[in-house]
Amino acid sequence: MRQCASSSSSSSSGQHTLGTGSSMSVEDHARPFLVSPDGTFSCGFLEAGDNAYYFSIWFTATENRTAVWTANLGDPVNGRLSSISFGHDGKLALADANGTTVWDSKTGGSKGKQLTVSLLDTGNLVIADAGRAAAWVWQSFDWPTDTLLPSQPLTKDKKLVAGYYTLYYDNDNVLRLLYDGPDIASIYWPNPDRDVFGNGRTKYNSSRVGVLDDTGVFLSSDNLRVQASDQGVPGVKRRLTIEQDGNVRIYSLNNNGTTGSAAPGAWTVTWAAVQQPCSVHGLCGKNAVCQYQPSFRCSCLPGHVMADPRDGRKGCVPTFNVTAANCSEVAPERFTFVKVAYTDFYGYDLGYNESVTFGYCRNICLRMCLCTAFSYRLDGSGKCYPKSVLFNGYTSSVFPGSIYLKVPSDNNNLNAGSAAAPPPSTGLACKSNGSLAPRYPQRTYVMPSNGPNWTYFFAFATALGVVELLFVAAAWWFLSGMESVPSSLQAGYRMVMASQFRRFSYRELKSATGNFKEELGRGGSGVVYRGVLDKNDTTAVVAVKKLTDNVTQSDEEFWAEVTVLGRINHINLVRIWGFCSERKHKLLVYEHVENESLDRHLFGAGIGMGGRTLAWGERYRIALGAARGLAYLHHECLEWVIHCDVKPENILLTRDLDAKIADFGLAKLSGRDSAGVHLAQMRGTAGYMAPEWALGLPVDAKVDVYSYGIVLLEIVMGSRVSDQTTADGGEPIELWQIAQALRQVVASGDVTSLVDGRLQGQFNPRQAMEMVKISLSCMEERSSNRPTMDDISKALTACDDEDEHPAYLS
């Protein structure tokens, strides 16, 4: 307080503006270098530790000098012989004791100028040309550190930083908080589990600017509007600051006792971006759990110890090893699981499955050598998240799930102090296909808590959930395996199982489509019509697929498509909204995808784009999106899903030209351990069908890989592969001839001759060559020699990091 009083008294006589040649030594840190005209702000040397000082700006009347801007953040100068000077060259410079300049304003070259340095009433330190009105050549507002002052704009070129945490505008124009630590980086505000609009933001304003005004309101161009709890109170000084705990807060300075019960000169928090401290990422490090009850602390998972007992942010290390040396040698019987109740870890999912049993989820993790744990939730349906690494952990008594840590079966070195484990269960449990699988023992731990004990409540809820899942599984078993069940009983079961969708009547869909008036497309399994549904005074455009009679002779394909599509959800897959099943009428209701199918754009007039051809960047994004959608079907669904008819007509494009794979009427399920399936009839479209179909061999997911390879080549060429002819325009070129030509292109290293001429040479050569190589590998006659869709997705993603600007070739 004595130092503050000294600072205040000196500020009253401090200078507001200095000319060139002015300087101050660090030994004079008790007085400010400059003071704003109204005395609100001071700037000068601020103590940063033992004999260390920063050159900063602070509020004069605070009980401790809280910096709002610092020139040399992270690089303090010596408490002796250091100085700040405004040289004759017009440069404001900070020198350390040895004369080394640690920071300067880079404003040299004052010839013909009358430069001055001033501290304004806004807290802005400016260098200006006194000979010209409002001619600022440098200002501290352009170089924020961790604080934003009223009227100081935060723009796309600026950010607030505190340690590993950053407040910044992302490239989609949304203001976000990012944790960028030594091991991971992730966004945690606004809520990453919601999309932009679900968080009340918008990405359709590219101005990227946010401002805190004098009344306590912070407005951002992404539709964010927040206000201090004392908003509108006159004369209150405020600041918006990002802090070392990852939170952003608005502080109000209490000068007259009107802000809460704080003493004059103290700061009061009047708004915070993150309400739950453990929602901030990176607070506790790897394998550690954040708890707030009510004070913050980090705890290790069972079987783990702190990497650094003095710093919880460095996380925890296991006392055991669950990673197999070779993924092909994973032995499930070697492992068990430890349940950590009411706990979850954000991100790093190896997959996502919904409406699955606990046993199914556990077995997924057992079979994956990279899986270190899995999260299982019962919040309406069983949700399964296998995890590769465990970051951003938190415990909450209201979280409707638990994390199950994978540990060696013979491991006895678990942390002491956890809740007592129940005796391991033994015996057999049914897998989802009805076969028997070993039931692996499991131990349960509850993270230490000072809050209410919800164990019995959640145990009861979990028991109810298990009963419900067993009922659901039994219902499916009856539907798929008991032909003798009466049709009326089957209808009842189906109504229960279809509750996750909306069941439409045929009359509703006939009315929605205007008696099936506007056709969007057709294929071997049916015709798709445009429909409009009315609901709660709003309308939604949908696509209604009316299955053909030859398909509806059996319910097989109809129910296969409903059950498959209803359980999956991916940005590159068309979403099903509902269905109709009335006697011979079988219909499916899909989301409407605005820009029609890829074939219209590759081989047609460019629907919805004024007749222009697809640009290279758009083609590459479509190819990557389709690959990711198929990779999800093949590797991440409840079962392997084989599409069986991959072609441009079944790749739909959104308004932003993102790919969505459609038409799962030919989809088949194949067990993960199956060597292949025999289908009763040939599937697919000529020109895109793998050799297995013609040879009558069992098919697996590699038939989709083959078809995708053809589509990928067509995206590069801009024409049908099946339309290619010999040089004299005679016979169609055989596929082996096309493969031979592709090998020659790859060997030459020049892909220009293959790329669609309508692009006029504007494409990325490396991306094009990668696509040709992938296409060639997909066309291998032996399916075992073809890559997986996961391999393809990763290869295309790696090339997607290339410069977005196309190469211009002559």
TrEMBL record:
It is found in: Membrane. The chain crosses the membrane at residues 454-479. Its main location: membrane. The keyword Transmembrane helix applies. It catalyses: L-seryl-[protein] + ATP = O-phospho-L-seryl-[protein] + ADP + H(+); L-threonyl-[protein] + ATP = O-phospho-L-threonyl-[protein] + ADP + H(+). GO terms for molecular function: ATP binding; protein serine/threonine kinase activity. This is Receptor-like serine/threonine-protein kinase.
